[in-house]
């Protein structure tokens, strides 16, 4: 017997219909009509399920817990998904608390630019069933212990997951336009630099591009910048003062710091 999944269909500004399955992360279909979008989604789900046991998707990952999963966690190393967990609310809370208070030094190639620290993606937290909820991307300082959380939306998450899982992306995203524009104009992205000033509740980004021997800097949304960094396989930097100010040191360490 085949499993049934609920699908959500939405119409985009450009009149395309997009269908996605809240309980199956990264499964998205698009088409000119709702029926086309759902047909495409069915193809994508079939391909997706070929690579993993269905029972893992339908219940919490923790043995003996039969509660439906509420969160999806992707552990990332070297820009590839190395672990995936579907967890119910309670187990997600425990897992996330353990993750945030665990301390280790992240390995990686130590890139260096003055006044900034190299970070890389480490964990992505997605709230299943609610694509309007922000997606939390955790980056880890390469060669250090500090972590940062970036909030992004479901579209950036889908694009990022398609890239790091090497699956075809189903929709032209803004960052794909950035990528082809840079390349077609003869430039080469060498890194991205993220910053967040005091009092601002958003991250800004600069795409740092080399072209004809000169350095070009283009302002971009942070969410586009780190997806682009992954597509082009270039380092992600965070301004040192912003990293220090916004580093997530986990609840227990924060309590120690307060004492
Ligand atoms: Zn559970």
The CATH topology of the largest domain turns out to be Bifunctional nuclease domain
Major β-sheet annotation = 9 strands, mixed
Please, what is the average pLDDT? 83
| Beta strands, count | 12
The tally of helices reads 8
Percent range for β-strand residues = 25-35%
Shape, please? globular
What is the assigned CATH homologous superfamily of the largest domain?
Bifunctional nuclease domain
Q: Unreliable stretches, pLDDT < 50, 5 or more residues?
A: none
Distance, first to last CA: 57 Å
CATH class value of the largest domain: Alpha Beta
| Alpha-beta classification | alpha+beta
Question: Could you say how many structural domains there are in total?
Answer: 2
What portion of residues is helical? 25-40%
- Return Rg in Å: 19 Å
- Could you state the order of secondary-structure elements as H and E? EEEHHEEHEEEHHEEEHEHH
- The CATH level-2 architecture of the largest domain is identified as Roll
Task: Give a written overview of the molecule.
The protein has 259 residues and is α+β, with helices and mostly antiparallel strands. The chain folds into 2 domains: 8-58, no CATH class; 71-251, Bifunctional nuclease domain (Roll), CATH 3.10.690.10. It has helices at 34-50, 55-58, 89-101, 154-164, 174-184, 222-232, 240-246, 251-258; strands at 8-11, 17-20, 28-31, 71-77, 80-87, 116-127, 135-141, 147-152, 188-195, 204-211, 214-221, 236-239. The strands form 2 sheets. Strands 4, 5, 6, 7, 8, 9, 10, 11 and 12 form a 9-stranded mixed β-sheet that branches. The longest helix is centred in the first third of the chain and has 17 residues, at 34-50. It is globular, with a radius of gyration of 19 Å. The model has no long low-confidence stretch (mean pLDDT 83). Zinc ion (ZN) is lined by residues 60, 62, 65, 67, 87-88, 90-91.
């Amino acid at each position: 017997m085949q499993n049934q999944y609920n699908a959500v269909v939405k119409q985009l500004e450009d009149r395309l219909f997009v269908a996605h399955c809240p309980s199956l992360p990264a499964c998205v279909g698009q088409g000119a009509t709702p029926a086309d979008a759902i047909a495409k989604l069915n193809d994508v789900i079939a391909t997706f399920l070929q690579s993993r046991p269905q029972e893992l998707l339908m219940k919490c990952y923790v043995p003996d817990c039969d509660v439906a999963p509420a969160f999806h966690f992707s552990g990332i190393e070297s820009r590839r998904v190395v672990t995936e967990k579907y967890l119910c609310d309670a187990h997600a809370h425990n897992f996330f608390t353990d993750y945030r208070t665990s301390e280790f030094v992240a390995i990686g190639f130590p890139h260096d630019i003055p006044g900034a620290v190299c970070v890389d993606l480490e964990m992505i937290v997605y709230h299943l069933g609610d694509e309007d909820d922000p997606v939390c991307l955790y980056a880890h300082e390469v060669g250090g212990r500090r972590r940062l959380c970036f909030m992004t939306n479901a579209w950036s998450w889908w694009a990022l997951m398609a890239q790091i899982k090497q699956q075809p992306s189903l929709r032209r995203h803004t960052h794909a336009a950035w990528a082809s524009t840079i390349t077609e104009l003869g430039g080469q992205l060498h890194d991205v630099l993220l910053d967040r000033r005091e009092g601002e509740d958003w991250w800004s980004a600069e795409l740092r591009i080399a072209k004809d021997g000169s350095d070009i800097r283009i302002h971009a949304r942070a969410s586009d910048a780190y997806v682009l960094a992954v597509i082009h396989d270039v380092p992600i930097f965070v301004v040192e003062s912003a990293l220090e100010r916004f580093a997530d040191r986990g609840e227990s360490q924060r309590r120690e710091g307060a004492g």
